[in-house]
Amino acid sequence: MAEPLLRLANVTAGYGDAVVLHDVSLEVAAHGSLAVLGRNGVGKSTLMLTIMGFTQMRAGHVFWRGKDISKQPPHWRAKNGIGWVAQEREIFPSLSVEENLTVAAQPSEWTLEAIYTMFPRLKERRSNMGNQLSGGEQQMLAIARALMTNPSLLLLDEPFEGLAPVIVEELIGAVKQMLAGRKLAIVLVEQHTDIALELTTDALVLERGAVMHRATSADLQTDTATLERYVGLRVAAD
Question: In whole angstroms, how large is the CA radius of gyration of the chain?
Fold first, then answer.
């Protein structure tokens, strides 16, 4: 059986004295897609931050391509194939769109040309500063900037939150295109359960920092009892 691209083994982690994640284990295969579901405050973003190396690990291990990277800093993880789109976007406001894209770029298939093909709006706005973009354009830029590092795994933390439906549809199309190309894997944290399960093949549900349920995304789509118990059903806007 092939080694998972990413594996967390019995991870307990948090911030300072506060423990948020409890004995969390998961796997993401190369070109795989995992939805992380749960109500607000259950540890979903902390899980993403732990994968990136920003939290304090109390127990367990994080493996990347079979290597224990539990003690590797965030910049090592980013350089070695883990891309992260934070919930806050964190683009550089005083840099142009093109400068945001190239500042941390690594050479491979995701080039400026490829990004502009996926996001024509960014090409149109390439000379604008980051703080001159709409919220939707900033989210496109945040995703595109992560892609320019040419990751093998892309962590997406609430990428559709607070955006107009037309922008959400455009971003959903972009994620589908990424996955169809089988060039990377994704871990998706998303409050819109139907979108998250549509885009992914596997899912887990967090409750109070622990994994309470695992299933294929297709099976969880029809498991309304589990969704109502641990997630609360939230339907995407038409």
Answer: 17
